[in-house]
Structures are given as structure tokens and as C-alpha cells.
Amino acid sequence: MPDVVHGPRIVIIGGGIGGLAAAAFLRRAGLTATVHEQASALTEVGAGLVVAPNAVRLVRRLGVMEQLLRRAVPLDWGWEFRRWADGSVLSVENLSGVCERLYGERTYVVHRADLLDTVLAAVPGEWIRLGARCASVEAVSDGALVRFTDGGHIEADVVVGADGMHSVVREAVTEPAPPEYSGLCAFRTIVPGHAAPDFALRRAQTLWLGPGRHFVHYPIAGGQAVNVVAVAPAGDFTDESWSATATIEELRAEFAGWDPRVTDLIAAGGAPGRWALMDRAPLRRWSRGRVTLLGDAAHPMFPFFGQGAAQSIEDAAVLAHCLAASADDPGQALKRYQSARIERTTRLQQVSHARRDINHLPDGPEQQARDTALAGSDPLVSNGWIYGHDAEAALTP
User: Fold this and answer.
1) Contact 248, 263 (CB under 8 A)
2) In this structure, are residues 11 and 156 in contact, taking their beta carbons and an 8 Å threshold?
3) Any idea which of 6-10, 56-60, 134-138, 193-197 has the lowest mean pLDDT?
4) Which option is the CATH number for 10-75+110-178+280-356: 3.50.50.60, 3.60.21.10, 1.10.10.10, 3.30.420.300?
5) Active-site annotation, residues
6) Which terminal residue of the chain, N or C, has fewer Cβ atoms less than 10 Å from its own Cβ?
7) Within a 10 A sphere around the Cβ of 3, how many other Cβ atoms?
8) Residue 237: CB partners within 8 Å, gap ≥ 6?
């Protein structure tokens, strides 16, 4: 890491993957920051996620790849789509060697907590403040004032809102807009490796498509567990909290009549978490003065392309580069950051939104046309704009 230079006082609100990645890249750029996290410990709720080449190349630049590889599972077998009723393969893509050839990095699946620990390894411990819940952010002359719920406050030259979908910092940047109810909810559970069938332990991300629903599974935690995510109609369930739970019976009922491999995998897991998928229109502005947004606070998206964490990491790398290049003019740096990132993340929000209808077609002509298209598709090539992107190299001088 370079020697730390004098620069703007940077405060990051939120100690999740995005907030810690921002701190790590700022340190790499020679700047300092403090991360204020409301929880009393740095933990990551949820389960698994995909770390695609566009994120892996940035993690490597932080010098923490060894940490990531301790628990990450490379997707050698690759991606496969299956039909809901009988498991017939609609499409399969072997990623072994292909990602490296096309994009210079592999694709991995990890537990969220393992990715958090990886990024944390690049952040000095003294930069982190726990038990600090942000109450408000207010613009002041040449900076911003952050107030906390315990009555404390701090002035900063730059405030970065990495505080997630329910961002408090967002209120200082743009007019509040309530999310729209999508009508869908997601379930998540982890199946211990010893209880999982060999089918689910393969180094593959398997996505089962069916009417109104889809079901995803892949190994995590060094192959010692299987991550399960299922999306289904929400009914009257509107709780967006990741701490909400359901029962195994409720999740199995959603997939009654599906291939037994699906329902058996559900039965082998623990009580699933459940959260409503709320729809949010892309923001037209992320920054105001010396305050900006990052990750889900700026661009929450449906999980159908597995790019939520990756885009937070891209944001972090670009933000650090812009602030280091214009350390004496943070306001201009934040404008450049927004300009560099907003078009790409808006596009990802839009394609993720569209995917929910494609995944959930009822059996019939449209579903058959989709399955035919899947059989003839090459997702790695067609989505090259996602995986081949180098967020730092794409910055204009």
C-alpha cells in the first residue's frame, strides 16, 4: 500500500462490503477514511453471492486474493439452466478456462461473510467505528455534518453513503421516493455439505426456471455448504428486512410439484430467511455537494444477474480513484465519480428488472421460445459488457 497522504476528511457510513471496499481502495490510493457502522460487530447477513471477473480483478488489486481463495468456490462446471418439472437441461456453460481466456479472471461463489472478511483484510482496524448509527447528514460550508443517534456528530470534507437500500445518507442527496412493491419475495437458506446431495455440491450455479418462480443453488464455504435462493410470489408479504424468516414448509409449498431434487434440497436446509423484493427506479443523481452514495444506497437492483456486490466494489474503486486525483476539489471528484458510474449501474438495474419476467414465464409458447434461445445462447459473450469491464481502466483522464 502507498504511504498515506494528507487529503480530505472522508467519512463512510456503512460497514458492509461496499463501505469496507471504499475504505480499502481509498487506502490503496493513499487517502484515509473512517467507517461508521451501526452494528456492534462487522458481520454480513444473508448467504451466498457470485464474484464475477469484473469484481475479482479489483479484489486482486487490493492484495487480498489469498484471503478470498481460502473459502471461495470457483465455478468450474459453470452455469446451467434447468426446467422446473423434470430438471431437463435448458442450457449449460462450462466456465473452466473460459472466463480466464475472455476476461483474465475466474468466476467464484462465496458466502457473503467470506467476501466481507476478504475486503476487511485491506482496511486498518483503527479506521472502523462500531455502534455508530447515522441519524442525518447535513451540508455545511465546504463539507458535511454527520449526526449520530447517540448525540455525537462529526464534520467531514466528504461523506459516502454506503448504508444500503434503506440509506439515511440518500436523504441528503435526493428527494425521498418510496419503493414500489414488486409482488415477489426471495427466500434464502444454507444446506450443510454433509446433508446436501452430490448434485448440489458440484462447482456449478444451477438455476431452475418455472411458472412464476425460480430456484438457484451453488456450493459455498469451500464446498462445505450449499447456498439456496428462491424467488416466488410474495402474496401479502411486504417485509424487506433480511432478518425476517419463513419455515421450511412454507418454502417447500412454493415449489410443490417441482422436480424432487428441488424440494429435497429445501428440506435439507435450515429455516429460510425471507424478504420482499421492492422495486426502485434508478436515481438520476448520486451526489450533492460533498455527499455521495455507493452500492445499494445508490443503485439497488434485483439479484437476477448476481451483480449487487460487484457493483459496490466497482463503485469503491472508482470513487477512490476520483478522490485521489482531485483531493483538493472533492466536489468535482464526486461529480466525476457519479458521471463514471451512473450509466453502467442504471443499465444493470434495468436488465435485472427485465429478467424477472423472463425467468418466470408460464409454460407455453413464450416459455418454449425462451428455452430455445437459452439453448443457443452464450451468456459469457452476450454479457461481456458486464464481466469484461475494468472499472478503473474505463475512467477517462
Assistant:
1) no
2) yes
3) 6-10
4) 3.50.50.60
5) 218
6) C
7) 5
8) 185, 274, 276
